[in-house]
Protein 1
Amino acid sequence: MSALVELDQVSAHFTVRGSGWFGGAKQVLRAVDAVSLAIGEGETLALVGESGSGKSTLGQMVAGLRAPTLGSLRFRGGPFATKAARRAIQLVFQDPFSALDPRMPVSSLIAEPLVIQGIGTQAERRTRAALLVEQVGLPRDSLNRYPHEFSGGQRQRIAIARALAPEPALIVADEPLSALDVSIQSQILNLLKSIQEERRLSYLFISHDLGVVNHLADRVAVLYLGKLVELAPRAELFARPSHPYTQALLDAVPRIGRARRRQVALSGEMPSPLAPPPGCVFHTRCPKAQAICRAEIPLLAPAPGRPDQLAACHFKE
Amino acid sequence: MLRFILRRTAQTFLVLLVMSFVIYSLIGLMPGDPIDVMIAGNPGVTPAMVAHLREIYGLDQPLPLRYWHWLMAALGGDLGFSRTHSQPVLEVLGPALAQTAKLMLTGWSLSVVLAFILGTLAALKPGGKLDAAIGLFTFAGISVPVFWLALILVLVFAVTLHWLPASGMAGIDDGGIVDQLRHLALPVLTLALANTGTFTRYVRAAMIETMRMDFIRTARAKGLSEPRIVIGHALRNALIPVVTIMALSFGTLFSGALVTETMFAQFGMGKMIYDAILGNDYNLALSGLLFATLVTLASNLAADLAYGWLDPRISLR
Amino acid sequence: MTAIDTGAIDQASSVWQLRWRRFRRHRTAMASLVLLAALLLFVAAAGPLAALQGLDPDATDLLSRYDSPSAAHWLGTDEAGRDELLRLMYGGQMSLLVGIIATLVGGTVGLAIGLAAGYAGGRIDALLMRTTDGIIALPLLPLLIVLGAVDLTKLGFSSQFAHSGAAGFWRIVVIIALVDWTAMARLVRAAALSMKERDFVQAARASGAGPLYIVFAHILPNVTTPIIVAGTLTIGRVILFESVLSFLGFGIVPPTPSWGNMLNNAQEFVTTDPGLAIYPGLLIFLTVIAVNFLGDGLQHAFDPRSER
């Protein structure tokens, strides 16, 4: 069985014009660098990283908004740039206030993917919108209303209903909870979970919040400076992180009532993606860095004794 | 920054070159024919002579070639001969330019002074009665046709009150400064009133924004008197950017000057161009129009550069 | 942010209803609306009035120049003995018609160019913007005059057509539109640029929407507000342009009246019959100031801050 979406050495490079008096030479920003992974049917893959890690850009490529500069994507083993792929992969955004066209009523907003894909008659679409609106927990009369009449959490529900309209196989959720109040976050999170269980959806769940990831993910992929540094099933990753960066991320999550396991302090700041460090991208901040880390790029390989857990480190645990 | 300057200057020259071709072609489309005008009223002219004349003046050549000849001559300083003035074009341009400069500078300065006074007064209490009255005045200023304003002023000051002369430049005996001022008064007043409206709005907006800033609150807390705050601090900060915008309005100012000169029979660039077009004086019309274009473009460039210098965000592009 | 209308739950509180309510509160704008309606009635009454009085607005009568208002001529006669009131009304038709049509033509061109530049981006945007900036930088009136002085016969039109009233009308519409589309283009481009990056546009793209769909379904509806405001203000500007050009003799040419060309020789009769110098300009002034106030009211009504 081929995976739902496969990424093969996918890169996203941007050319940036230099600054300065006469304009410097053009530089290349490697937002995403040679990432390979696969998303299966019905699984939730969490994509974790700090800002500047490239996770949003990766999400855009999976959603079909951006073509990769290098590498390729596959949908169910076949080509990616097809109408079927666009229908099957939908997107939910971070900012609920920007995600909905203020000029359209909710019924049109939800039905829009159907209109774009040419699915169903107008009556059928309206019926579907009515169904979806209730499934995401909003009252029926929302259909005639406009986005500005709803709160952030409610708008996010509408956005989710829109993503569900064409009966997708995968939803790319780019930090869908970050802009919401904490009390609303758990509501939306539960909504996402229940939807997945009902429909056997896959999620590419992009987040920087490890607590949420722990709640929802089946597997976790960790990005640093555009590179995939660790890819593991959820339980393993949280129990025994293999890559030093993952370890540092987990240690940074405050846990009430429990002493920290170990102190892994990261030195320095994340380098600019315009000038990534040679060799292993993480070596400038890594407490374990050695000469080899600067010279050789580590490949993703299984951690000792745990073949499901992949890390890109010369000294993975 | 240097790159920015060079780029903008190059753009200006390019536009000027393109415009020179466009205007050259348009002049050719004006009613009448240079040869016909030359031989007007001369019964002994035969078609053979006309053809010969055409050859001599190069009028049988295609347009791009004729343009090229003109361009080469112009770059060498030869702008041709003005038929209606019986002088080389350059000798006509000089005094006309001086007259227009006199009118425009005086008018512009008056506008600026009035605008700063009115705009500041309006900004002191936004929404108040004075602000509303000044607002009405500015709306009137931008809605009034300049030539009609001139007529009304003539009606009031010249015809009814006999305070000022209705037109012309100086008395027959060239009666010194006072006489020149009397003749300049109505045209300057017309030009100034027409532009004060827009300028006042700029000043008002800039002053309102400046007065809201924290450093004004500090000045108040220090116990400085209100007039001192408004003039010494707020006004000074609002001055430069506002004056820059006002300088940008050069193009509109020139158009207003054109009308004013024509109405008041003042021999400036505007009237010169207008008469030249009506009188089929092709050389003069062409040179005059191009000069007007050059001056407008140059002032826009100067304003852009000043803007770029003022706002560090722009200059780093 | 809570739902605003708890009373009428089933009533769609559409964006337009909100706007109308806000507009009504702006008193000067409402007054301007009334004034403009009155002006429209005024110019529309030209035909009926001429029929009623049995007068020909173009008929000159050199024996009755500068007559004072009378029963036959309610506002007197002009410098050629023509009825002043009728000429004001017909002139108004011309000036308003040029204003509206030139705005529509120029606005459409500006809209198309702004959308193309804003949405396509890249080289197309750069090229279009360079051109726009070039035109904006030119001195308008001299350029309009040169364009207005063009002899249509040299462009291949027949002499009869070139001198007809229709040619004169379309000439000035084309000239003004040619020169005035830049403001609209810039505005639309800025709006399109900001819309392009919004998430709902990205969502539509992710579902497979092409550029045409996005432009018509999302960008255009969201730029209607600045377009309407800009369009209204453009009408005022265009009316002023036409009046200046006609006044200088390069726009609408007599005998067809326009408010501008009625002041053609105003300097001659400003002493003999000041009324003739006042009326046409006053009408231009009232129309333009009303249009400007209307635009201002629309701008306040469309305030996007309350419609996030």
Protein 2
Amino acid sequence: MGENDIAIRVEDVTKRFRLNQNRASYLKEAIIHKADTSQWREFWALKGVSFDIQEGSMHGIIGHNGSGKSTLLRLMAGIHRPTTGRITANGRISALLELGTGFHPQLTGRENIYLNASILGISPREIGRRVDDIIDFAGIGEFIDSPVRIYSSGMKVRLGFSVAVHVDPEILLLDEVIAVGDERFKRRCFDHVYQLRKKGVTIVLVTHSLGQVQSMCDRATWLEGGELKMDGDAIEVARAYLQQVNNAESGGGDDDQHEVGLEMQGRGERRGTGEITIEALTFISAHKRPTPFVNSGRPLVARVRYKAAQPIQNPTFGLRFFTDGGTLVAAPNSRRARFDAGTPDGEGEILYKIPRVSLTPGTYHVTAGIYDENNLHVYDERQREFELRVQPGDAPDTEGFIDMGGEWAKALKKPVDAPLDA
Amino acid sequence: MLTATQELWGYRALVLNLTNREIKSQFKMTFLGNLWALINPMLTLAVYSLVFGYFLSFHKNTPEAWASGLQSFPLYLFCALMMWWLFNRVAIGATAAFTSMGSLLRKVYFPPSAPIVAHGLAQVRQTMLEGLVCMLVMVLVGNTPWTFILWPLLIPFMLAFGLGMGMLLALANAYYKDVGYLTTILNMLLFYVTPIIYSIDAVGDTEFMGLPVKTLMQLNPLTQFVEASRELLYLGVVPGLWRMVALVGISVFSLVVGWVLFVRYSKDVSEVV
């Protein structure tokens, strides 16, 4: 990999913050403590982090709260300086770090667009050409000529995002902001991020959502306590992170659960750009017949019939199974499984083979979708249009969502503290 | 320092934008709008003239203007006040301008000097306006020396002087909040030790700790500005060579020193503002 392929290079970066900076803001204390700087409580937000971000890639940064990910992003954006080490960026950076980044409350939305653009180094003439696009994308309507202080937080995010992506960044830094806002805007954001990616923009995303990292990012960096824990392929990093979280016995899936809750809203909706469409989703039981019914514990094949108007390179196929109550119970996805769908053109079928249906009896609503290879862009998504009825079968469990398929056994004569598999 | 200067130049669109914003938002949401730009100084001038000129009879010691026989304390005072106000708004106002952009500085990168410079530039308009009003009144009372045309030249020098001081004050205040309080007090003292409401000749041969007060006052850069303003507008005299050298020297010195120190110590300022 050549030097030119690097968008941002992070070299042995440390960052120290002085915690009592505020208290020492009075001269008296500064003079008293002058001789004894060890009194200043220090906090190392980053302790020697090195990694590269490839040009044109989408790079996720994950870690617990306080792991240093936001600090790292601020250093990349040039807001703070590294205490030691170096960050070199190769291209114009646009950053969206917090809600309503850099808006002046007294000025109108339009004035703030100009202010923001000039901060990002865009000439007034240049921004004049794009201001309508920005306003249009943000969907602020007539409020654009009202002071920003009366905007809702959602409006501020939309305007901030809109400015950040319309200033032709070569590198875009995003700090979880797009997780805020309503579902419709979120989709448009992701669609826009997809457009930017296609243009070769490098995107760095700090996020809590492992789902986002796994489904959208190429590579990921995992920070822990200001140190680099892992850097590499996004799916692997996310998997390792999840495993560690699970091991730590904390409720690891919380964020994903949260995401599910949001996705609940669009029942029966169909969306996508339609380059490739889902013609049908059928379930085939053990008897090799299409059926809306299946017995719990038996094998099942889900068959997705598609039709591509043009050759699509390695699309992602996804299924999502929801209960009647709207809880997502399973979401198989061909990208995460690293399945290569080839380059579909015309009509065809993709199968998802389930050796043993572990869903408990009940009715399930199924979403089928086809996305681009980075899972960012939606070609076609039919939300909960399909139904799967699971009937009692060989599996004994009828309560809960799934049959875990475990076996009951008596313990050894003497109780042992060893793990189960010992 | 050179790269920082180039950087600020690269961000000139931002500086101009902030300047425009400042000018536009100055009297926003007020009933009288831009009229305040005139009402403010006129009221202050009226009160000072009444108290010092009339009650305390300062007008008796007011020097005679260029037009023979004209002796006006309010005009004499106004020539000095314009300079004082400009200094105040640029240098003392820098701190507030800097702090108000602090939250932005924590979210986006831009040269931290930009809001200070923009705030300074935005003040020029007000002083130009005051100067125009002053000249108009002078014409009405028949005091029309040709030196009027030189007066606007004082503004860029005062701007440079004020910006240098303002950058230091704003930066110091970001690290130590005491500076803000201290400035308020010192500013008030400065007003009285500068010959604004009185003529420098009024102090006569008074000595302070064995030193002639008049000489000490001459060392105050503001005295030079105030005196030059009076000479050009009221007395109709071109300032002496020594005064001109002093004005240029002190302005450049203040700007350069302020800028160098600001550049050096503002690198981590986004962590404290």
Protein 3
Amino acid sequence: MPEFFYPNEAVLEWDSLIVIYPYITGLVAGAFIVSSLYHVFGLTRLQPVARFSLLVSLAFLLVCPLPLLLHLGRPERALEMFLRPNLLSAMSGFGYIWLTYLLIVVAETWLVFRADIVRGIESSSQLRRTVYSLLSLGIRDLSETALTGDKKLVRLFALVGIPAACLLHGYVGFIFGAVKANPWWSTPLMPIIFLVSAIVSGIALLMALYVVAMKIRRKPLDHDCLHFLALWLGGLLTVALALEGLEVLTMYYESEESWGAISELIVGRLAISYFGIQFLLGSIVPILLLGSLEITRVRETVSARLRFLASILVLVGVFAMRWNVVIGGQLLSKSLRGVGNYTPPLFGEGSVVMAGALLLLPFLILAVMSFTVSPWQPQTQPTVDLADRWPRFSPGRSS
Amino acid sequence: MNTDISRREFIKFAGIGLLGAPVLMRGLSGVIENALGPWQAVQPQRSPALPNWQFIVDIKKCIGCGQCVKACKVENDVPPEPQYNRTWIERYSIDSLEEARVESYVPNINFNGSQHLSNTHNGNITKSFFVPKLCNQCQRPPCVQVCPVGATYSTAEGIVLVNRKACVGCRYCIQACPYGARFLDPRLRVADKCTWCYHRIVRGLLPACVEVCPTGARVFGDLNDPESPLHKIIAAETLGVLKPDVGTEPKVYYIGLERGVR
């Protein structure tokens, strides 16, 4: 049967830039949740990456609006969304949610690194002195009371940041999940799937970056920390896989009018990126990998490599998931009589190069930030004293 | 820090709280009402003084000549390329009732008047018909709901328009339209769509596509006008709308709507 598309569907409107947008916000939310697990819930095994995860979150958060801005037909009118929003539109919330979240992350990051910044003012180089003075915002109080106050505030921001992170990414899922015109998007599960896969991707990113950073710094890995991250990754990845599987299983079982086209989409056009990468390579293989590491005894260096591999696979898998949602949904004709084809252009608007550059940008920002305030030196007595007031979920590193 | 408060203070604060809360709630509900103001635009609302424009398409009369598409492109300065359309025609060819074989076509308008109509069909055609498409001017328009800046809006008469000076070109409305009726104008980089020729109908003229239709397959009118041809058709014909299940409440009604037409 010949395929049919509404004539206006010949243009794919949301391109690679809109694919990397939920990918980036997901990484932000995930990395932030890790830092909050440490700061709020006192999971001290995460201490080696606690400060780093905040910087990762901030670096990606700063880049987050860029793909959206560059994608707009009239980017010069972007601020209109702030100034005269239609509050019925889910999209109009982006600026507010992003800004609120940015304030929280910036405030928390500043407080966490404040002591280091103030100490940096005494450094020998003139440039560094100036930079640190500016970063300190003129607040140089490092007394016991001030530091305790800092810790309390960090904890508060880390706590408030959790719902904000969930909102930021749940909202992205809502943008797609609430489009009733598109049967591949329109499911109430969408925000939840986005949220869980966001946390998964953030943890995976931290694991991968942590291993790479330690390699660059030629410092030994804290295997206990990596193991702990891997446990969280494996657990949440299982939840994500279950949700994504249930979503498609329900669609298949209900077999509504749209199922013919949807099955054409996932079995035909998207088979490799959907079943191959999103499910098999990006979810099932890492789960098996991480799971088998829990029941077998291997040398720490081997397990670290395998965990690194698993985290890379997850990062690729989550990217494929974003692609399958954003691009996949648009390949499906709303006439339900056709499934289109899309290969992103190499250069120009919405191209591979443009999206790739935007994805690289947060890593550059992260490098600059890590150079300015090192996330690695051990924090002077982490917030354990505060965390002690809360029930401990982890037996700590003594076990 | 001394956190003890005396009973007197407690009573004072509690009193202020109790009295203040309703005032605050009143204020808050006002704020919320204001914030949700645009919802009014999405809800069907109609002043009896305004025209109640409706559109009827008679599938049985359409011959697929494409004059309407051409007229629309000229009248509204729609980009000539085939992927930009405010209105178009689909051709359905049905083999048998079990397998509703559907083949559709868009008149490829090039302005010397010739059209390309594929004729590759070699099966048994039980029946064939044309379905003109245009904006349904939904009473619950999802495009208006999702527009982040309110550039897409419903006029008081219930016509959905795009304010080209406000549109940011995010294309959420294009995603939200279940009918594929919208596109991004490549020249202005803002959303564009059929307006039922709003600039004409407010002057009492017919939409361009209705004006040129040689068979009268497109009927436009004001339900508040007792002389309108709509009344007779509504009384005599069975009318259907496209995708009624999505709850958009279209104002384009079809006569002879075959199953499988989406």
Protein 4
Amino acid sequence: MTHGEMVDGIASLLGSVLAQADPTPQAYLLEARQMQALSLGVHIPLVCFGISFPAIVLFVEGLWLRTGNPAYKQLAKRWSKVMLILFAIGVVTGTILSFELGLLWPNFMERWGEVFGFAFALEGVAFFVEAIFIAIYVYGWDRLSPRLHMLSGVPIVVAGVFGSSMVIAVNGWMNTPQGFELDAQGNVTDVDPVGALLNPNLWHEEVHMYLAGFIVASALVAGVYAVAWLRGRRGDYYRAGLVVPLAVLALAAPAQIVVGDWAARTVAETQPVKLAAFEGLHETTEGADLTIGGVYYDGEVHGGITIPKLLSLLAFHDPNATVKGLDTVSADDRPPVGWVRNSFQVMVGIGTLLALLGLWFLYFRWRQGRLPRSRWFYRAVVAAGPLSLVALICGWIVTEVGRQPWIVYEFMRVEEAVTGAEGIPVGYATLVVVYIGLAAIAAVMLRRLARKPPEAETAAGADEIEVLP
Amino acid sequence: MLEELALVVLLVGLTAYAVLGGADFGAGFWDLVAGGPQRGARMRGFIHGAMGPVWEANHVWLIFVLVIAWTCFPRAFGPLMSTLYVPLFLAAVGIILRGSAYALRGEAATISEARGLGALFALSSVLTPFFLGCAIGAIAAGEVPADGDPGDPFGAWTVSTSILIGVLAVATGAYNAAVFLAADAKRAGEAELAEAFRRRALGAAVAAGAVALGGLAVVNSDAPDLFDGLTSGLGLLAVIASALAGLVTIWLIAGGRFEPARYTSAVAVGAIVAGWALAQRPYVLPGELTLHDAAAGQPTLIFTLVGVVFALAIIVPSLVVLFRLKLEGRIGHQPGPIAGTAGEEGGR
């Protein structure tokens, strides 16, 4: 714990003690932030499946239509049920989020709702389309003609991508707010909803998250079939269940490195303080070094390999460029560096490992035309799923904690936005219980699905969908 | 003008949620009171099967309402959330429990587990519309301050008008659910169940009507401004329209004509929602904040409304496809004996 964090900690402790006697609007800021972070942390992995899984399922269904091999149909049908379960849970967690935005941050919504709300309205539409067609698709197996059935899946793909883009647009806006003016009293005027939506942070966040969606979903799914592979399960069903997500992972993970570089360069331009937090760079430096690895505590990076001038080179493609440090803003306006820097390292580290795993797969696929034989490859695939989840959450910590102390970057601080409601801890505790329950439900339902043999999907009477959300 | 249009969009969304989402919650109510495990088994099975494919789609209306509210009326949304966080949080918890318990019910290993989960599902189905109704009641009764300190976190939504609207929301949901389920049962050739739901629909319709009429007396003493609005001018017109639609619905149900009754019951709900808005014109938060002052700037309203028009162009045909497929029995699982007969009536 740094001296600064210690002071912060004591201050917030004092704050919460004082709040007992005299509730102030900021009494439960930390709890409110944790509650929001918890809810997003639960929701985002589900979003990954919403972004990517429908396309993967449709691809497998397309394989079935082209080849007539029932294994592909079994797989697509099985995965569509997984998709429905995760969507149903996502509806619940997404509803919690919609409520939370207002319940925890009423001043944020009141002041800025008209600026970024348009994107949420579009997201609501996409969500609607998704809900409608996911029902048609999953409940329509064997009841609609094969072509019509596959066609009914297309809107799910489009809506999944479009809807998440809109939410990302709002996040991008919180980081690079635009599309409004402030009058003399500080009131929001001259709102340009489209300008707010198309903010500078939208593009890289969108592509970065989109690829992350494909990486997380494919790594988790591939992991399930890698376990089956290690247990000696073979056949078209298990092979496709492994190869399709592995192919997705192998394409998305290396691409993510390129996109990550783009994202960091954009942040260097739009939010230099955040970039400084990524690297724990305290002072503005010309030709800044980059330390790979190491852990940040006590106000500096310990360990790791330092490469001279690499940060300047990466951030501005010029080894002598000046990189702004945390010292460009006052201490009150700096994010908690430890969280941001360490999460950033974990994300980049795992991302690199996933890309290497993808290349491992591609090498054997292209040069030898087969899957790797080493059991270690399959063990690595099993590990890739949970690791990709860790990287995903770390990435969001980098973005969101790196934005602190602002909720609307350089326009509104989180403590101005938070509710004055008492009883936040009660709500927090309730949510923790609810999420544990939801996780248990998901686990039970997915396990039950996994226990059934693949042939059950195409057996007589298989059109009875028992998985009801 | 624009803010009125945005309000109409919001209220249409609210009506859709009250009718479709409310009917889902109402189905949970009938599950709760279906009787012991033996007697209620068929009805519970039918309810379970009837709701599967459309649950999420019905539910999304709530998200739609929230999003339109904070985008188009941010200056009302903030105070609402600051004052009414208790009932809204409880409603949200109800939504979660309901979805989860419903999903898990098939998983229960023992009968007592199944009953426990079923009870949780049914109970949360009642609590969610109740608390949402209470929140609306608090707005209508003028308990939500626009500026300064938020209202009392408990006192604001426990005034009698709030409780009344909470109860009314539960009753309306139960009545809509019974109408929808009766229509489903009739289409599926389940005459006995159709008759059971017919009786329930009638009972619930009478109960909802009684609560609504008796409630006017409560409103009179509790929120005189709201009462005046509901008993004069356009507000009165809306109340009469709602009452007429309610009576027509009862007549249709009594005659076993469930299909048209679906629509007249929706009209009854829509009219009362409209009546509420008309009664508190020009306020969003009565006596505190007018519609005009609560509204977002013109560009936001224009873009949102244009977006909604495009959205409706996509969503309405999609919903029609979904409901048609469900009504034709082409999607969704058909519990028990229904599977055999659904095909014959398909395509009507």
